[in-house]
């Protein structure tokens, strides 16, 4: 089987062409024979193996090489009827082999109709709700049909250029696709002809028929010829007459092989639930992961934001098991890589949304953990169905908040799901609340993810249809926010979101979402809730800046914040920055710029259904003693600045110099006197002259007094020196009495200094020893710095240095 979307065909050589023609002829003969055999299949007899059925040689070959020999229950019932051309509604437990139950009839029916080659056109369309599932179905198709069939089959799921897909589509006989993308081609690709379509298959039919895909499916069916065969398969099948009429089914055969079974889930699946209050869910999850490191675990959350937040935080905490995360809004290549990694892993933990809840056949999953309660029992069945597939064993644990327990258990009971309560061992239960808080405190991007996770979770509770299970008023949301490491629960405004619209939004492709985001931005702007760039590219930073609760602070921080507009303006001045009309906004904008998102995040998702109200608190700020206003700690640069005492001094107020009068009253240093009094004393110029004259006289008098004092001091000194010289002459040789040359020289220098300069002899101020990071035992600086005046002194100093 050729795959036009991946392989480009080369021009066949003459020999190859001849071989093909010969094979076609043989196939024509076979097809006729097979048609007879198929019409004679006894639908009442039990078929146990593929060899019991009239299948073409290429299909038999393909089944054999893939090691499929015995039929599963659903295959034994559905394949013979489908071969005979009936419309089918097939329901069977998860992992029971429904894919082959439609893949084999597709190959066989097209083969018998000789719907092969580009001229035959599109013969079968297989629709899957997710890209991952479409890829998996395509792989099964290739495994079974790729051995000997000549069909051209392809995948149309987006993620490639439209033109590339268009070219491939024109040559396809079988297409595996997602609803949105195939509808796009049906409506936009004029060369895409579906007039020859014989078979339409919907895998996970109930999902495809539900609200999220309703419009797309109805539109697709409009394009298809009415005289086609339609096969619907799911583990939780729709039987609604309205659905069947929408698809124009003709006397469909309802095949539900496990309808009489006591359980709607595989026998080999052990199912339990634990009652864990919402604020303890992450503790329980962490404890579980810690005790199951040698396992392959699939963990479900209700939203992509939850997945990202828990994945990022747990990754920081190094759980000792490889972590992966998968959500609808990741790029297709990343999603593929992650599914591949998880499939191949022996021990790994995949955090995911319901994008992997249906149909995916990961080998050997040990545990399925549902951290967030599923929206209904069907979703529960599909999620747990990722383990215990095709007779293998598996375990599933559902986390329930006490308020969800009763409602959810009754829903599961109605759907025949056997589930038992278990308790977490106290010994094993760990608390990660402190770690979460410290991580969010240190990393604003994580806190941001946490806030989004919180709002998306609460919003999901709000839009849940089953209000008996999800009673939003019963959840301890404040404690939940704290368990995520958030300083407080972001306040949420609920828009009147219709659950149908939310689902539809979820199902839209990335591109469509991107388009719709700009629309929603515009509407948000109209409401005055958010101001956004309407044109141009918005980065994750833009979105971070735009977020409305970015300044939610920890209690202890909020105490430090003076919530005063004036203060904030002062701070802007203090920072030397221009203040615009939106100064406050600018200050806030600086917060994340220095603290870029470090995660390997993709785009930041758009809130829908909820808008976070702006908090009254300003950005993180701190009071410096002695400053008039708190300093906003909005960047690492500023925090660093605060560590420098010198810089802090600069920021401090200078203080006021006051003078006190004789009565002890304080006055400003310069006080302007009464103007009238001033004028009464005469013209300003005259006053100035008088003032200068009096000051000059005062200075001259002071000068004379100083000179007289200096003269007196010099005289006293001279007297002292003479006395000393006399004493020296009288009292013998000083050297012999123990006085050193250095002392002498010091005295002499001091005297000379006083004499020459005529200055008062003062005690020489001690030179301050420079502060250093290391100690040095060198000559005393006082000694070095002494001025050396005469030649004799120089000689003595030089001798000292040399000696
Ligand atoms: N006849 C068979 N013999 C052996 N293995 C089979 C047979 N049919 C299917 N399987 C295996 O069983 C597993 C489950 O099959 P499949 O994915 O088709 O289940 P499903 O019923 O579609 O599950 P879900 O409801 O989750 O979509 C696959 O690994 C497949 O290879």
UniProtKB/TrEMBL annotation:
Domain DEAD-box RNA helicase Q: 48-76
Feature: compositional bias, Basic residues: 11-24
Top EC class of this enzyme: hydrolase
One Pfam family named in its UniProt record: DEAD
An annotated GO BP: rRNA processing
Record keywords, A-Z: ATP-binding, Helicase, Hydrolase, Nucleotide-binding, Nucleus, Ribosome biogenesis, RNA-binding, rRNA processing
Residue intervals of the Helicase ATP-binding domain: 79-255
GO MF annotations, alphabetized: ATP binding; hydrolase activity; RNA binding; RNA helicase activity
Biased composition (Polar residues): 1-10
The protein's name in its UniProt record: ATP-dependent RNA helicase
